[in-house]
Amino acid sequence: MAPPPAVAIAPGVFRIPTVGSAATNSFALLDDDGSVTLVDTGVRSAPPKIVAGLAALGKHPSDVQRIVLTHAHPDHAGGAADMAARTGAPVAVHEGDAGFAEAGTSPPNDTSTATGRLFARLPGGGFPPVPVGERLTDGQVLDVAGGLRVVATPGHSPGHVSLLHEPSRTLITGDAIFNVLGVRYSPRMLCSDFRLCRRTAHVLGELEYERAGFTHGPEIVDGARESVRRFLAKAVTRHTPE
């Protein structure tokens, strides 16, 4: 059975699956004036699914006024150039990843382990370059659906951000934390700096929210903060080989 084109997380906040039912997700935030902000754009082939998700919400690409990228990896920024062309919307990304988005290249991988060094040598990692209209900073509150706060969580990439929609108490984690077979850190081999990613993920345990949308995995709509904090508390007690 095909996944639904859009899934409600909170009032005005929707997840749009772009790979499988929840393997990779984009998000749409709807404003009272009818405008839409997209968060992440999936892989290069994802835009038709995003357009279908918008249609399920009664929206058209022309309703999209801003595209926000959590980071410049091809499964999050791969469709950005296409969606920017379809919508005419500017693309916003943290200044730490802006150069990679504009070049269409992924940030370097963590090579502190043999697996990371092997993964870094694999081909691929590119995506269509996209102009960056806005460079985000930590703590910035975007004028999106009542307020979307930028939370810098670097490590997965140099400029990785999570996003807190304060009116609905909804966190969009980006790849700081996955919800794949349970809440977990991003795999080391996918990070630019895994140790930093692990440290900054703990910021998410200190924020106030009730729901969490994950760019990889299904949302948690009840007790999300407690679920994240339980994972983080357990994670610091386990030894992770460096």
For the report, how would you describe the main beta sheet? 7 strands, mixed
- Broad CATH class: Alpha Beta
* Category by helix and strand content: alpha/beta
| CATH topology label | Metallo-beta-lactamase, Chain A
* H and E order: EEEEHEHHEHHEEEEEEEHEH
Oligomeric form: single chain
Strand order of the largest sheet: 1-2-3-4-5-6-7
Q: End-to-end distance, in Å?
A: 41 Å
Helix content: 25-40%
Mean pLDDT: 93
Radius of gyration: 17 Å
Runs in which pLDDT lies below 50 for 5 or more consecutive residues are none
Total domains = 1
DSSP summary, beta strand count: 14
CATH architecture: 4-Layer Sandwich
Walk me through this protein's architecture.
- With 242 residues, the chain is an alpha/beta fold.
- The protein has a single domain, classed as Ribonuclease Z/Hydroxyacylglutathione hydrolase-like (Metallo-beta-lactamase, Chain A), CATH 3.60.15.10.
- It has 7 helices and 14 strands.
- It has a 7-stranded mixed beta sheet with strand order 1-2-3-4-5-6-7. A 5-stranded mixed beta sheet has the order 8-9-10-11-14, with no helix packed on it.
- InterPro entries: Metallo-B-lactamas, NDM-1-like, RibonucZ/Hydroxyglut_hydro.
- It holds the Pfam family Lactamase_B.
Short description:
The chain is of the alpha/beta class. The protein has seven helices and 14 strands.
Characteristic key phrases:
7 helices; 24% strand; 5-stranded mixed sheet; Metallo-B-lactamas; Glyoxylase-like metal-dependent hydrolase (Beta-lactamase superfamily II); Metallo-beta-lactamase, Chain A; hydrolase activity; alpha/beta; NDM-1-like
